[in-house]
Amino acid sequence: MSAEMSGGAEGLFELHEPEPATPMEDVGGDPARTTAPLAVRMRPRSLDEVVGQAHLLRPGAPLRRLVEGGAAASVLLYGPPGTGKTTIARLLAGVGSRHFVALSALSSGVKELRAVIDDARRRRDRLDQQTVLFIDEVHRFSKTQQDALLGAVEDRLVLLVAATTENPSFSVVSPLLSRSLVLQLQSLTEDDVRSLLRRAVADPRGLGGAVELTSEAENALIRLASGDARRALTALEAAADGVAGTGDTEIDVPAVERAVTEATVRYDRQGDQHYDVISAFIKSIRGSDADAALHYLARMLVAGEDPRFIARRLMVHASEDIGLADPTALQAAVAAAQVVQLVGLPECRIALAQVTLHLATAPKSNAVITGIDEAMADVRAGATGAVPPHLRDGHYAGAEKLGNAVGYRYPHNTPEGVLEQQYPPDALVGRDYYRPSGRGGERLLAERLPKLRRAIRGEN
Question: Of 144, 152, 266, 336, which sits most exposed with the smallest number of CB within 10 A?
Answer without folding.
Answer: 144
